[in-house]
Amino acid sequence: MVTAPSDRTTVRRLAERGVYDREVIDAILDEALYCHVGVVVDGGPVVIPTIHARSGDTLYLHGSPANRMLRSMRSGEQVCVTVTVLDGIVLARAPFSSSMNYRSVVLFGTPRPVTSADEKREAFRALTEHVTPGRWADSRLPNDREEKATLVVAIPIAEASAKVRTGPPHDDEDDYDLPIWAGIIPLRMVAGEPIPDPARVSDLPVPSYLVGYRSVAG
Amino acid sequence: MVTAPSDRTTVRRLAERGVYDREVIDAILDEALYCHVGVVVDGGPVVIPTIHARSGDTLYLHGSPANRMLRSMRSGEQVCVTVTVLDGIVLARAPFSSSMNYRSVVLFGTPRPVTSADEKREAFRALTEHVTPGRWADSRLPNDREEKATLVVAIPIAEASAKVRTGPPHDDEDDYDLPIWAGIIPLRMVAGEPIPDPARVSDLPVPSYLVGYRSVAG
C-alpha cells in the first residue's frame, strides 16, 4: 500500500478517497488542462489559474517575470498546486448525500527558478504538448527574446496526493424507496470544431493532431 | 468605468482582461460548477476544490465540521475563492503567443460561520440549485441531523475581480505568413446521458430539469 508522503498530503476527510500512487497522480496532472496555484502574499492566500505541465518528476509553471504569483515564488516560498478533473454530478435522493465525481491532485513544494536554456526549452515543449499534443513540432519555436521574457519555475512532484470519487450515490437506507430519481450526470470537457484565425484566411487545413481533440466520442 | 474594489483585486498582468462589474463576476460564479479555495495553514498555502453557490451578495461554502479547510475558516482567517471557466485553447503560430480563452473570478474575504437555521437552509438550497437547477423541489430535504452535521460559511461578494480572455490569437506580425495553422479550439463542459442509480432499479423517468443539462447543443 502506498502511503501519503507527508502529514499535510494525508487525505483525512473521506480518507477512502485518498490515492498516493504516482501513476494516478501523474495521470490526473496530465489530463487537467490547467491548475490553480496558491501562494501566500502579505500573509493571505492568493489562488490563480494557470497552465501547468509535467515532465517526468517535475511540474513546470510559466509566465511573465512581472507576474505577481511567479514573483512570489522566486523568494523560495512554498506553493500549493491543485488540479481538478470533474467527472460528474452525483444526485442522491437527499442533497446531504449528493456529491460530485472528480479526480484532484494537491501538490506542495518550493518552486525552483529554471535558468538553464535546455531545461527552459524542455518546459516550453512540455507546456505546449500538455495542452495540444503534436503542436510543438508544428510551431514557430521560442526565440531568445521570448525565452528571456518568460519566467519558468519547477516544482518536484514529491509531496502530492490525489483524491478520487467515482460511482453512484450512497443514500440513507430509508431514502431509497422515495419516488426521487437518483444517479449520475456524467460531465466531460469536450472540444468543438477548430475555428481558424480570422486575421489571415488561409487554405491551411486543420492539422491532424487537432482533429478529434477531446471529442465527445473519444 | 467600474474600478477594482481593492489593490489586490486589481488585475495587473494583461490589465485589459480585468473586469470589475458585479454582473460579469456573478455570471462567472454562477456558471462555474465548483471553485478552488485557498487558505493559509501553518504559514503555507492550501488549495482545495469544493462546491460553492451564490445567493445575492453572498457566496456560500459548506462541508463537514471536521473539514480542515472549513475549520481554518472559523478562526476569522482570510480566504481566496477562485473559479475558472475554460472556453478554449488559443493556438498562435508561436507557443509564446498561445493562450487560453477563459473567464475567472478571484474573491477575497473573511468567512462568517452561518448559524441561523433559515440562512443555513438558504445556503443548502442555493448549493443544490447552483449545480442542478430544479433539484431542490425534488429532493428529500435536509433533516436536523444533517443540518447539524454540515458547516456552512458565508463570504460577502465585495472584494472580487474577474479576468476574461476572448477572441483569436495575436501573433507577432512576422509570424502571420508562416505555414502554421492558427486559431481556437473551443472547449465546453458537457453532460452525457444521466445514469440511474443501479442500487434501485426503478421506473422513475429522468426528471425534466435534468434533460438536456449542459448539452452540447445548448
Q: Overall pLDDT of chain A, averaged?
A: 92
Per DSSP, what share of the residues of chain A sits in E-state strands of 2 or more residues? Answer: 25-35%
Task: Give the total of domains of chain A.
Answer: 1
Shape of chain A: globular
The CATH H-level superfamily of chain A is Electron Transport, Fmn-binding Protein, Chain A
Q: Structural class of chain A, please?
A: alpha+beta
What characterizes the major β-sheet of chain A?
7 strands, antiparallel
How far the N terminus sits from the C terminus of chain A, by CA atoms, comes to 32 Å
Descriptive notes:
In chain A, 17% of the residues lie in helices and 35% in strands. The first copy, chain A, has 218 residues and is α+β, with helices and mostly antiparallel strands. Chain A has a single domain, classed as Electron Transport, Fmn-binding Protein, Chain A (Pnp Oxidase, Chain A). In chain A, strands 1, 2, 3, 6, 7, 10 and 11 form a seven-stranded antiparallel beta sheet that branches. Chain A has a four-stranded antiparallel beta sheet with strand order 4-5-9-8. The interface between A and B is large, with 97 and 97 residues. β11 of chain A pairs antiparallel with β12 of chain B, so a sheet runs across the interface.
